[in-house]
Automatic annotation (TrEMBL):
A Pfam family it matches: DHODB_Fe-S_bind
InterPro entries found in the cross-reference section: Dihydroorotate_DH_ele_sf, Dihydroorotate_DH_Fe-S-bd, FNR_nucleotide-bd, PyrK_electron_transfer
Top-level taxonomic group: Bacteria
Gene3D superfamilies assigned: Dihydroorotate dehydrogenase, electron transfer subunit, Nucleotide-binding domain of ferredoxin-NADP reductase (FNR) module
Highest classification ranks of the organism: Bacteria, Bacillati, Bacillota, Clostridia, Eubacteriales
Protein name, per record: Dihydroorotate dehydrogenase electron transfer subunit
Originating species: Candidatus Egerieisoma faecipullorum
UniProt domain Dihydroorotate dehydrogenase electron transfer subunit iron-sulphur cluster binding: residue ranges: 134-170
Length: 172
C-alpha cells in the first residue's frame, strides 16, 4: 500500500479531496458493430460496466465475459446481469478458454484487464477491438514517458494517448 492509498483510506465521509482523474481517452462506443463482446479481468471490469450501459443506450446488446482469480473477488456480477442478458463469470482458468470467447459469436471486442489477458485476447481473436491498458502512470500528463508503449504509429503514452488503443495499432 502506497502513500496515496493510505491517505485515501484515512479519509472520512465528507472529506474534500484534490485528485486528478479521467486522464487519457476512453472507449468509443459508437463503433459500427452488431454483436460486441466485453472482456474484463479483475479491476479491469468496472470500466466495462459504464461502456455496457452506453452500448445498451445505443441499442446494442453486448455479451459480457469477466474473469477473476477467485469467486470472492467477483465484482459487479448482479449489475451486469441486470443490464445485459449474457454475462459469463470465469473464476478458474482463463477468459480466453471460455466458449463465449472461443465460439466467436461477436464482431467487435472491448477489453480491459492485466497485460497477459490483453495479449491472450489479442492472439485469440482476429476481429477489431479496443484494448484498455493498465499501467503505472508516473506523472499522468505524458511528460515522464514512464507509461510509454510501442505502437505501429510510434510510441504512445498510456496516460495521455491511451489507455484505450485500437487493435490495429497495437504492437506486442
Amino acid at each position: 500500500v502506497g502513500r496515496g492509498t493510505k491517505l485515501l483510506s484515512a479519509a472520512v465521509p465528507g472529506s474534500r479531496l484534490d485528485v486528478l482523474t479521467h486522464l487519457g481517452n476512453g472507449f468509443d462506443s459508437e463503433v459500427r458493430c452488431e454483436r460486441p463482446l466485453l472482456i474484463g479481468g479483475g479491476i479491469g471490469c468496472p470500466p466495462l460496466y459504464l461502456l455496457a450501459k452506453e452500448l445498451r443506450a445505443s441499442g446494442k446488446t453486448p455479451a459480457v465475459l469477466l474473469g477473476f482469480n477467485a469467486p470472492s473477488e467477483v465484482l459487479l456480477e448482479q449489475e451486469f446481469k441486470a443490464l445485459v442478458p449474457e454475462v459469463t463469470i470465469v473464476t478458474q482458468g482463463y477468459v480466453t478458454d471460455s466458449p463465449v470467447f472461443t465460439g466467436g459469436a461477436y464482431d467487435y471486442l472491448y477489453t480491459c484487464g492485466p497485460l497477459p489477458m490483453l495479449k491472450a485476447v489479442y492472439s485469440g481473436s482476429q476481429c477489431g477491438g479496443q484494448y484498455s491498458f493498465e499501467e503505472r502512470m508516473g506523472c499522468g500528463f505524458g511528460a515522464c514517458m514512464g507509461c510509454s508503449c510501442r505502437t505501429k504509429y510510434g510510441s504512445k503514452r498510456i496516460c495521455k494517448d491511451g489507455p484505450v488503443l485500437y487493435r490495429e495499432e497495437i504492437v506486442w
